[in-house]
Design goal:
- This protein is α+β, with helices and mostly antiparallel strands.
- The protein is 15% helix and 40% strand.
- It has a six-stranded antiparallel sheet.
- A hairpin with a 4-residue loop joins strand 5 and strand 6.
- It is globular, with a radius of gyration of 14 Å.
- The termini are far apart.
Length: 137
């Protein structure tokens, strides 16, 4: 996994991201990639990654994709207003990779689309969301 942006712009992962091993691996204007190894603490009763993990991964990446500032001293946050997730397949690999892109928006909200694939390339889940930008810190 190669970081393709300046890692000094990356933020410390949230407690939820730390719990699931989510790692921001690419972050540029309008785009974010978040990856995570599939681990036992993500699984449901069937031993498969829980759908909520995919939703959290999508929410995380889509939130990041609209909050890039390029300046580690200026932090932009967003709140999720709505999100729709479609579950398409089960993961068979060892790592989850979520790519998210801004698809539109205005001064105070943005729209995003995200996809989760495993490291075999299988499309696992996809989502769209609406996010409200909060004041920069």
């Amino acid at each position: 996994m190669t970081q393709t942006t300046d890692p000094t712009t990356f933020e410390t992962p949230s407690p939820l991201s730390q719990t699931f091993g989510f790692r921001l691996t690419k972050w540029t204007e309008g785009h974010a990639r978040v990856e995570a190894p599939i681990s036992h603490n993500m699984t449901n009763r069937q031993g498969l990654p829980h759908g909520g993990v995919y939703a959290a991964l999508l929410d995380t990446a889509m939130g990041y994709c609209g909050c890039y500032t390029g300046d580690p001293e200026v932090k932009q946050n967003a709140l999720t207003l709505s999100m729709t997730v479609n579950y398409l397949a089960r993961a068979t690999g060892t790592r989850l990779i979520c790519e998210a892109h801004v698809t539109g928006g205005g001064r105070s909200t943005f729209f995003a689309r995200g996809e989760v694939r495993d490291d075999t390339g299988t499309l696992i889940a996809e989502a769209t969301g609406v996010f409200k930008l909060r004041s920069r810190k």
